[in-house]
């Protein structure tokens, strides 16, 4: 695992392992499945664009939109990826007029 391309934090690693366990149909998780899970992970947030104003609200809005796209619009998955509760995501989406 030390040589795998993990670029996030402990929460990201935990989510990747959880997803791999769910997807694994064999009693042992092999490197191939782990790599596939990492490569398809919606946790890799797209880089913030250079055009961002730098304001926190604009950055939050951009991250929410990016993760929503990566999660195919699944708000529960988006909230989990962001490490916030679904109600917090809903409030932020309402605040930033993303609903």
UniProtKB/TrEMBL annotation:
InterPro entries: AAA_lid_NorR (IPR058031), Homeodomain-like_sf (IPR009057), HTH_Fis (IPR002197). Residues 56-96 form the DNA binding HTH domain. The keyword ATP-binding applies. The keyword Translocase does not apply. Residues 3-41 form the NorR-like AAA+ ATPase lid domain. It holds the Pfam family HTH_8. GO terms for molecular function: sequence-specific DNA binding. Keywords: ATP-binding, Nucleotide-binding, Transcription, Transcription regulation. It comes from the Bacteria. This is DNA binding HTH domain-containing protein.
